[in-house]
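Pasting as-is:
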Amino acid sequence: MDRLQGKVAIVSGGALGIGEADCLLFAREGAKVVIGDINVEAGENLASRIRDEGGEASFFPLDVAKEEDWLDMFKYTLSTYGKVNILINNAGVSLGKDIEATTLDDWNWLMGINSTGVFLGTKYAIAHMKDNGENCSIVNRSSIDGQVGESGLAAYCASKGSVTILTKSAALCCGEKGYKIRVNSVHPGYVHTSLTEKEAADAGMSKEDYFAKVGKMHPIGYIGKPMDIAYADIFLASDESMFSTGSEITVDGGWTAQ
């Protein structure tokens, strides 16, 4: 129960879904967790739950598309816990439209959260990690759609593709400068979250029918649970992954093996 003992972790989009699973698992493994999210009620409830379980956690409101929110988040984390060792760039949105149906407003909204948000988080995490003398890790949430395409998710695919390559560039930058910071990406398949529920709504299907249909498209026969992804995140967040940087960890039930 001490894989992250002594470490301080920020999780964006940490209030629900995969982010929630990360926060729960990280706290149970000894990390002090800062939950960043636009959902204030869910974030505060999760922080309270973690504290009730004996962990250390706090909530800070974060809109990942806003630079000032990131600066305030890191300022809060350093003033509260004295350092930051881990950033999970988890926040994201989806949009079930192909390229013909996607408007410029759609594009700018989604890219602002999924791509610009990861850029800002990574940039300022490096700035606050590089001089602390400890092993640090940034984990960026990409997707199978950052590795292969889907016709009905044009902007989403573009945003996750950018996360995949930005991660590699940032990893090389940190390595070349001698920073003790690893930067990796995790690529989930379809997972039971509010994000996939929105994709079901975009497709005009009930979430039960949508999950059943999409589950059959994964060779393993079903879609994942948030904790399936959290276990990959904690490996990369912990010192167990000291020789991993610029890597893609795929947790997709076999989707991209086809």
